[in-house]
Amino acid sequence: MNPSPFAFHRATSVQDAISLVSTLDNAKIIAGGHSLLPVMKLRLAEPDHLVDITGIPGLRGVAERNGAIEIGALTTHRDLATSDLIGRAVPMLAESALAVGDNQVRNRGTIGGALAHADAAADYPAVMLAAEAVMIAESAKGRREIPAEEFFLGFLTTALGPEELLVGIRIDVPAAGTGSAYEKLANQASGYAIVGVAASVTVSGAGSLSAAKIGLTGATASAVRIPACEAALVGRTPSADVIAHAAAFAPEGLELLDDLHASTAYRGRVVRGLTARAITRAVASAQHKAR
Ligand SMILES: Cc1cc2nc3c(=O)[nH]c(=O)nc-3n(C[C@H](O)[C@H](O)[C@H](O)COP(=O)(O)OP(=O)(O)OC[C@H]3O[C@@H](n4cnc5c(N)ncnc54)[C@H](O)[C@@H]3O)c2cc1C
User: Fold this and answer.
1) Predicted confidence (pLDDT) per residue in 31-65, tens digit
2) Is residue 57 part of a domain?
3) Using a 6 Å cutoff on CB, does residue 34 contact ligand 1?
4) Domain containing 239 — which CATH number?
5) Position 262 confidence tier, pLDDT thresholds 50, 70, 90
6) What average pLDDT is seen over the chain?
7) Cα–Cα distance for residue pair 280/284, rounded to 1 Å
């Protein structure tokens, strides 16, 4: 099906985009278009105006500044998958970017679009939670920062207001001895996560875990952190038994989805398995860095 008719506007700056979105009636931002256009073709969204933000300078790229990694909203999945800085500092983000769709999707789709769309099966939300990332939004009212834990509110729903532009993401440079990993069971047709788990752990000088942050996507209506699993890791010396014990907590208390891709029972088993794998790889990477 074709989308309903719309007018197309190219924003030249963040302020221009904000002004267009807030003054035009029924306007929507478009970045890579890989989530918006399919929704428009299904007539689930019928904007009268599209505001293209891909020409705005300064919104694409990755940089380290003042102890933090700053990622522009227009940074593509491919940019993230191939960034040395991301690969070194936040490997779970590089791995999740490489796990998005296929080459065409990775070349065109942006992290800002993926986060703003907040598909329940999208990869990045799990990583943003495990990295304790901060989303930076701008609107006519100014700039505000939204921690990942307050950003993903539910199915296709975020804390962004209709006239707010996500301009970037900030992640603190992980502490020394931190390792991370992303594991995913992908839908074979779309590539989306049936279950995706991001794990970030920090190994102290004595060899025990001083921090553990686990994010889960695909398994519930919106990405979540798994505090019970994190608590079972912190203060312990990581071993196969400790990791298996912690991973066993992962699906507890969650309302796991039951759909044509996977039953609740199957998702629960996959959540446990992928959580154990992600933690195991994150620990190995942390121990390697701590040497
Ligand atoms: C075949 C296929 C396979 C895919 N597989 C995966 C997968 O395996 N894993 C996965 O996570 N994703 C997958 N995706 C989705 C892909 O990652 C999209 O690129 C992404 O979800 C949306 O990014 P975009 O730049 O294309 O956004 P768009 O489609 O342009 O926009 C998406 C939504 O976000 C809003 N928006 C965009 N940018 C901003 C901004 N800066 N500020 C505020 N709002 C904004 C738009 O208004 C729209 O509502 C797949 C998509 C396709 C088509």
Assistant:
1) 999 999 999 999 999 999 999 999 999 999 999 99
2) no
3) yes
4) 3.30.390.50
5) very high
6) 96
7) 6
Centre of ligand 1 to C-alpha 18, Å, is: 19
Q: What is the domain extent for residue 105? A: 62-172
Token pair listed for 147: 């921690």
Q: Which of 9, 76, 105 to mutate to test the pocket of ligand 1 (most atoms within 8 A of CB)?
A: 105
Token representation of residue 40: 């428009």
The CA 175 to ligand 1 mean position distance, Å, reads 30
Tell me the chain's radius of gyration from C-alpha atoms. Answer: 19
- Does ligand 1 come within 6 angstroms of the Cβ of 109? yes
CATH number for the domain harbouring residue 36: 3.30.43.10
Count structural domains, the chain: 3
Give tens-digit pLDDT for 120-150. 999 999 999 999 999 999 999 999 999 999 9
Could you tell me what percentage of the chain is helix, strand and coil, using 3-state DSSP and rounding each to the nearest 5?
A: 35, 25, 40
Q: Is 101 near ligand 1, meaning CB less than 6 Å away?
A: yes
Same domain, 204 and 276: yes
Atom of ligand 1 nearest to the CA of 124: 11
